[in-house]
Design goal:
The protein is α/β, with parallel strands linked by helices. It is 32% helix and 24% strand. The strands form two sheets. The chain has an eight-stranded mixed sheet, sandwiched between helices. The protein has a four-stranded antiparallel sheet with strand order 2-1-4-5. The two termini are 26 Å apart.
């Protein structure tokens, strides 16, 4: 891995749960992100995968400080984002941008595309007049839309086109890191591959660092250099994308991989599906020990008493499982 651009050290994001309207009392804590440590190298694409509700989007928002940092450190290019003032954070955010899941909700319906992109451009460059118009046109062309469409409003575009505009807005500040939060899940299947290829091409051409959040392992395998698997606020496995998806170590990762359809009918018939029992536990009341143990087919008594840590397993792989050496081959 290249020099880390982003370093997460035991990052936690907890939300208090209150009861009562007048005499408010805290009755619990939602542990949305519960101790995530991860490094992302400059120019690297890391895929973050896991079930809905596991804390992926909250982690991305915490990195941008759109969600509270309860504990831990977030280092971006050596600067601790949690220690910046509001004014310093506004200046730093030109280097960190986010592409949200729903492009229609993330674009201002009362602003033309030109105004939306121009506002972002001016955060980095003091352009005006013809220079600004030319730069906005370049951004539109870069994401596959004509410069003449910049005068339209978001509702005049299709879902895929709106997501291209959202990508252009993220690029407008010339960021070093982009957080893409399930950027294709709200789009038609026929459009998803176009947006994925666009993100991949732009990342390579501009040397961007990308945290790509998704629940689709086939997409992550295609776009990512490394994969981080998340379950109930914690990382359970990290490693090279091909290695994690083709030879998963953690029981949860194995279950996720077994749910991915294989286009080869013969291999699809021969493989063994791992069906997890029950629903994911609530982050308001997580299980003791390994939070995955109530659903794990390989759990033992020790799993409910001890919290596993991410440990090196060779070839840059890390996994958090107490019984990893006792598991059958994946």
């Amino acid at each position: 891995m290249s020099t880390p651009l982003l370093i997460l050290e035991n990052v936690k994001t907890h939300f208090p749960v209150w009861h009562g309207l007048v005499l408010r009392k805290q009755v619990g804590t939602i542990r949305a992100v519960d101790g995530v440590s991860l490094s992302i190298g400059a120019g690297e694409i890391v895929g973050l995968v896991g079930e809905s509700g596991c804390g992926k989007s909250t982690l991305a928002r915490t990195i941008l400080r759109l969600a509270p940092l309860t504990e831990g450190r977030i280092l971006f290019d050596g600067r601790a984002l949690g220690e910046l003032s509001a004014a310093e954070l506004r200046l730093e955010r030109v280097n960190l941008q986010m592409v949200f899941q729903d492009p229609f909700a993330s674009l201002n319906p009362r602003m033309t595309v030109f105004d939306t992109l121009a506002e972002a451009v001016r955060r980095r460059r003091p352009l005006r007049g013809a220079e600004l118009a030319a730069h906005v046109g370049e951004l539109m062309e870069r994401v596959g839309l004509g410069a003449g469409a910049a005068g339209k409003y978001p509702h005049e575009f299709s879902g895929g086109q709106r997501q291209r505009i959202a990508i252009a807005r993220a690029l407008a500040t010339e960021p070093r890191l982009i957080l893409a939060d399930e950027p294709v899940s709200a789009l038609d299947v026929s459009i998803q591959s176009q947006i994925i290829n666009l993100i991949l091409e732009l990342s390579r051409a501009l040397g961007l660092t990308l945290l790509f959040i998704s629940h689709d392992l086939s997409v992550v395998k295609y776009i990512a250099d490394r994969v981080a698997v998340m379950y109930l606020g914690r990382l359970v496995e990290v490693g090279a994308a091909a290695a994690v998806i083709e030879r998963p170590l953690h029981p949860y990762t194995r279950a996720l991989v077994s749910a991915v359809h294989i286009p080869d009918p013969e291999r699809e018939r021969q493989r063994r599906r791992i069906v997890l029992q029950g629903d994911p536990p609530s982050p308001l009341n997580p299980p003791s020990g390994c939070t995955f143990h109530p659903r794990c087919p390989f759990a033992a008594s020790e799993c409910s008493a001890q919290v596993p840590q991410l440990e090196e397993r060779g070839d840059g792989r890390r996994a958090a499982c107490l019984r990893l050496d006792a598991l059958p081959p994946g």
